[in-house]
Each structure stands twice: as structure tokens, then as C-alpha cells.
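User: Hi! Is it possible to get a structure for several chains at once, not just one? Here's what I have:
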Amino acid sequence: MREDTLKMDFAFSEEAKREIKEIMGHYPEKRSALIPLLHLAQKENGYLSEPVMRHVAEVLDLTPIQVYEVATFYSMFHLKPVGKYLIQVCHNLSCSLMGADSLIDYLKEKLGIDIGETTPDNMFTIKTVECLASCGTAPVMQVNDDYHENLTKEKVDALIERLRSN
Amino acid sequence: MDRAGEREFKSISLVIDGKAISVPEGTLVIEAARMLGIEIPYFCYHPKMDPVGACRMCLVETGGRAKLITACTTRVEEGMTISTDSISARKGQKDVLEFLLTNHPLDCPVCDKGGECPLQDNTYKYGPAVSRFTINKWGFKKPVELGPYILLDRERCIMCMRCTRFSDEIAGHPQIGVINSGRGSEIGVMHGQEFNSIFSGNTIEICPVGALTSKHFRFSGRPWEFKNRPGICANCAVGCNINWTIRRHEILRVLSRENPDVDDGWLCDRGRFGYTHINSPDRLTSPLIKRNGGLVPAGWDEAISYAAQRLDEITLKHGNESIGGIGSPTLTNEEAYLFQKFMRKVVGSNNIDHWPKGNGAIIEKLFEGSSKNDLRRFAYSHLDEADLIFLVGTDISGEQPVLDLRLKKAVRKRGARLIILHHGKTDLTRYSSPWLKYKEGEEMLPIELLKRIILKGAKEEEIEEEIKGEAEAASFSARLVYEAGMALSGSRRTVILLGNNLPDGLIHAMFDLASGIIGQSGEQRDDQWISLGLLMGHANSQGVLDMGLDPDYLPGYVRIDLDGPRARFETAWRYSLPRAKGLSADEMLNGGNNGAIRALFMMGSDQPSVQSSNNTLDLKREGIEFLLVSDITLSDKARMADVVFPSCTHAEKDGTFTNAGRRVQSFQKAIRPVGNSLSEWQILCNLAIEMGEPFNYLSVSDIMDEISTLVPSYKGINYPLLGDKGIQLP
Ligand code: SF4
Ligand code: SF4
Ligand code: FES
Ligand code: FES
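Assistant: Yes, the chains can be modeled jointly so their relative placement is included. Here is the combined structure:
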């Protein structure tokens, strides 16, 4: 686990602070800057810990729960540390029809973890997500910023292999 | 932002279930239906909150549209036809209920809400008898503790978001929220935080299911065993209307009873949960007399005649003026009136006052001497019309909580401007523009500056100069005072509220300022008014003052030392009243003013409100030969007494209180008196009769009749007229 994810207190870096100023300038109300700030905080801290959310709340004059609501609503925000590779498997309608469930089971078994968990070597985290807007190539999963489409067990094997050796 | 009276509403005609109606533009379909007496089922809709359309219960059919619409989010349109009970509307409603019940446990037999639950009622009326969902319902570890008073059983929640909307929109305390999304959504607080808003309890009442329950009340009974009886909250001076939930002479719960001119249907937690003293095991059940150093139970006859005898003895020995009386601001108007009459007529002493006491009499006298119609006496409803609200040295959120909600409504929903002059941060300072902060005790400086800006036309630069030397006392800039001054002189409808313990000089200065602003306005501003009020501290602080529980004033602020006005009372009471100015409560408490006070009668309990405030009674017994106390428990003062009369709480008696907005409100006995306790007016009658003065009042209404003939502002008030909403004093 990276050092900074364990920190109890959180403060934005100087660079981030400059960026925050710029972001806030886009909105008439401070509160509107919440999502961009959470992204920024997640980039800096790796995930949204409670101290991070409290800090963001303070910056935006919100109560902690107002930040927590948004952070838990969106699957792009992580409330726990995630591995080097975040695997987000779509389990919405098209993907489910094309076998998402067995794909998820296969991944769980292969990596030895459950949904929402991270492998002990901190390499992989699995999450399920809703439609990734790529139904035509279902089943689909997103690993960090990349899409992997028309998945089969073989493709998954090859991918994991490649990522492990990276 | 719609400001009252500033927008002309267009009227819209539509037809609902075959009935035509015209309603103001902007009305919601569900509200239009209500006006016609047509019921549309709902959960998330609440007349005091913005619509969200969260539950989908209110589906209705509208001509020309294929899809059903939610009546709680749709505003009326010209020519609309709505059907609330067509086959497709009914099917929609039924299906929504089937969905809402997919996970709801239907554990009504063990649920507090069972018997008074909208989900139960709507399911019964509109729902399907069976469900097609055979999958397992969810289960949660229960219950979750949201705050000091509230528990959440997550599986019962139907995600209507009434609770979260209330805490944000109405209370301004967004401490609870919706966590996660979709089917995983649940209500909660963030780790390490709690829902400790002083208004939290309202969510229990507005939750349409049994998801939010009260820690105090949970599992204490079934609704069909209860009676709900009307009452008035006595925990502060707001005077919120309540219903006591009662089972066999025990108070189990306090609910709101909406009075639009007082509480708007809300309560604070102090009021909602502050009832435990009523059925407390500590209540006194019989009179006590001190014997051999200890207080021992006695019968009423014995206690009354002993007390009367002692008072007579001391009068004979040391004169009438050696006897003093101090009442509590929790006494009813009738009791306060009778107490001062007892002291002045039966005992023959003007040593009569109340404690704790604020500075309310000054404002009464100032208004008495003023003839400006546009300078109004404050009523809560003025806040609903005001453009500008100016709070001077008062923390309404802490002292008159439910009034804080009306203020927030004015500021947040209507866009009224708030200016606060206070030394410290309060819950409202965040809405204040500006907040003029001064050093405690030096609030005169900003008032003087405002006077100069508004009445003398001083410029910002001059104020700048002035402040320089005073930088110590002021943490505001010339700019801010100037801004405030300009806002005050430019506003058309202004409410100015003063704290209860401000120095005399400041009250005078504020009165002058308000009169000055009114005096300035020419004819082109004839719709301008200022409403000025001084917010009293306790349940009946205003009333006990009105009733003359004061050494200087007879009821109605008639000065005791003025022969003319006093004569009215002498004729009515058939007695020549003592002329010597009486001692104040502080003087009487303070060692009886060098022995001047030999007997002291302290009437009324400090519970519930005085006890929770910062006042501490400092009673010294030296010099006082006889201490007579009436109280509901063996309080500190009762412990020191020679005779203690057990009195009943306001849940056990009839009476009236006059609230901080000068509305007189009546309440009736909700449960029978605990033990052998009596209400103070009965105690006074018994004692007076024993002392040879026939106080033959059979009920509080007899006393009110006398008050209404002697106190001009209470003229014509009687119980039938008070009804269940009370009467605003002129
Ligand atoms: S707890 Fe009650 S009020 Fe809050 S969302 Fe759930 S059902 Fe609605
Ligand atoms: S605001 Fe005052 S009167 Fe109203 S509920 Fe609270 S304590 Fe009672
Ligand atoms: S359902 Fe998986 S991408 Fe749309
Ligand atoms: S009452 Fe209309 S959607 Fe809930």
C-alpha cells in the first residue's frame, strides 16, 4: 500500500491548490466544484479516505455527508485503496446477456478475490459497474482507462498475464 | 424567488376527476386535487418542501399523455384534465406500491409506526393484496444510531428523502444524506458524525414509514391505546403547539400540532423530547412541612393552614412589607395574575417579581408612548413578509429554536436580507450580510454609528474616522456598518428583533432608530413598516410581565406609584393598594435586602425551561424566617423551604401562556395531576381563603374574565375565543 494512502490528515498539494482556484472559477456556486475536486483529491491520495472527504467538505463549505453522498454515488470514486489495475466489469443488461456473470465469476476465481477487493500484492481490484456505453461489443470491462471488449476467458487470461508481467 | 405580494398570480383552470377548478399558476397538481377534496396517495411530497418525485406514489393520468405523471412534481397547465382514479392511474399506483414493498419487511406488528403509518394506509387503500416478488427481502443489522434521539431501521426505508430534505432545506443542517446509489441506497450519517441538529426529531414525525424512530418512545405502545391531546410547549418562549401522546395519564410522546402563525408544524428537540419531568418519579405528590430539620409529608389542609398562620404571624411582627413573592416565568397568565393580586391585596406588599427576568418592560413602555402606526409590535408572521430582518444581540437559534426556522425560511426561500449584530457566531450568522461583530458588552457603538448613517446622513468616510479610535470594540469595517445602514433605511418591510438581556440604553436606542426611520419616510413610502420585538426568554416571560408580576407595575404596565391608573385596580379589587415600591427578585433573593424580607413565597417550577438556561438561582436563606415554595419536584429551593406545595406541570392544568410574539395561547389539562399536586392558581385560592380573602375562582376562565376587564391589551379575551390557535395581542 502506498504511503500516502495511510495518512490520517489530508491536504492538497500546492499545485492542486492552484488547480482548485481555477476550477472554482468556473462555477457560480462553490458546491458545484465538488466532483472535480473529488477527482483531484483521488488523484493525489489514490482514493477518497474520510480525512480526504472531510477536507474537501471544508474547502467547499459543505458538511461531510454532502461530500460522502456524492462520493458513494459514483463508481468512479474509490472509498478504499485500489490496486495498480482497477478492473471495472460491466454487469448491465447487454453485458449480462452476453455472459458478464460468468466472466465476473471467472475473474473472481482467477484473482482469488471478491468484488470490491484487492489482491494481496496490490495489483488488481475488481468492481462491477453499470453500462459502459459499449453494448455493441459486450461483454466489456474497463481496466484503468482502457476498454477491453468482446471478452472471452482466453482474452481475460492473456490480459491478466500481460498486466502481471508489466 | 417569489416575494409575497410582488407577483400577480395568473389563475389556471383545469379539470380533475371531472371537477373543474381554477388555481394560481404554479400550483402542483397534487395541491389542486387537495383543494377539491380529491386524495392522491403520496409519500415523498410534503407541502413545506420542494418537490422531488422520489417515490412515484402519486401517479395520475393526464389527457393526451401516454405516460402517467407524478402529481407532486407537475404544475397545473391551462385546460389540463387529470384523472386520479382511472384504470391506468390506479394500476400505476398499485404497481408502485408493489415495487416499494419488494424489500419492505412489513413487520408492522413490531413497528412503532404501525397504526399511524402512511405506507400501511396507502397499501391498504391502493396497493395489491399479494406481491409477485418472491425473492428474498433484504436484511440489515438494525438499528443504526443516527443521532442522540433517532434510530434508523434501514430495511423499512422507502427512500422518499423527506428526512434528508428536511434537514437541509428546512433546518439548514444537512447532516444526514443518501449513501450509495440505486438499490444500495441508504440513509445515513458520515462516520464519526451524528445527526445532532436541534430539529432532528421532526424527521421521525415526517418519515412516512417506521424507518426513523425515537429512542425515547420506541416500543412503548400501540397507537390504538393512545390519545393525542392538544397542549403548548413550555420549553421556551416560542410557544409551539403540540399534541401530547397519552396512555393512562402518562405522557409518552410529544408531536407537533401545526399552528401556521407560531410553529409552522415543526418542533425543536428540546420541546419534543423535553417532557420526561412530567411523569418523573421525582415528582412531589404531597405537601411537605419542615419538622425537626427535615421535610415530612403533610395533608393539604394542614400545609395551607400552617403556611397561612406563619405568613400572618410574620406580617403582624414585621409588617406587610416583610413578605415577598417571586414567581417563575413558567406560571400561566392566570396564576401570575392571581399571585400578584394575592401579594398586593391579601398580603399587602408590592414585593412581587419574577425570576429569571428580562428587559421586556422597557419596550412595553416605549410602545405605550408611541403613536406611530407603521412601527408595529412584532408578531411571528411579520417574518413571512419582511424584506429585511435585523437581529440585535440575540441568538434565536439557541434560545427560540423554532423561530429560527421561520427566519431561515424568510432568508433562504424568499430571499429576505438578514443583518446580525452579535458578538458571537450563531447558526444564523452564516446567512447574515453583513454580520456586525462587536466585543461583548460594547454593542452600543454600532447602534450609534447606524443612527448617524441613517438619521444624520453620515458618509462612509466619517464612519471610517469614527471607527478608527474604537478598533478595539469593533471587528467590523466602516464599509459593513454603512452597508447595513443603507439597507435598513432603504428597506420597506423590516423586522427588528432584540435580545432579552440587552442594556436599557440599547433598547431605547433601537427604538429611537426604528422610530427615526419611520419618521423619515415621506408619502411616497407609505407602505413602509418596521416591526420591532424583544424576544423573551421563557414559556411565559411575556405573560407574567403583562400580568404585573413585577414590583413596579400592576397588570397591563400600570405604574404602582401613579394614583390615577392605580385607582382602577383599587375599585375592581375593592382594596386600597400598598403604595411603597416593592423589591425586585434580585433584591429579595439577595439575603432579603438586609433583613427587610422575613418571609418569601417562591411560586412555580424552573422546569422545563429555566433549568436548561444559563440562570442559576442564588437564594440565601439568612434573614428569611419562613420560606414557602411551590414546585413539581424537590428542587434546590424546595429543599431549603419550610413548606413545600406540590404543584402540577402544564400538562396537568388549564391555563394560557403569552409567547415571545405576544400571542396568547390556551391549553387544557391533558392528564390528571400527579399525586396530590394542584395547579398554582388553586393553591393561591386555597391560601387566600385560609387568610380570610375569598378568592372564589372556580376555573381559570373566571380569572381570565377578570384579566380581560382590567388589562387593556387582553380586553375581550376569553377561552372560547382563544380556540386552538390563540389570539395575537394588538
Ligand atoms: S428514513 Fe423515512 S423519511 Fe427518510 S428516506 Fe427513508 S422513508 Fe423517507
Ligand atoms: S422552539 Fe421552544 S416552544 Fe418550540 S418546541 Fe422548541 S422549546 Fe418548545
Ligand atoms: S451493458 Fe455493458 S456496456 Fe452497456
Ligand atoms: S409523492 Fe409524488 S413522487 Fe413521491
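Chain B touches chain A at residues 173-181, 188-193 (CB under 8 Å). Residues 1-5 of chain B have pLDDT under 50 and may be disordered.

User: Great, thank you!
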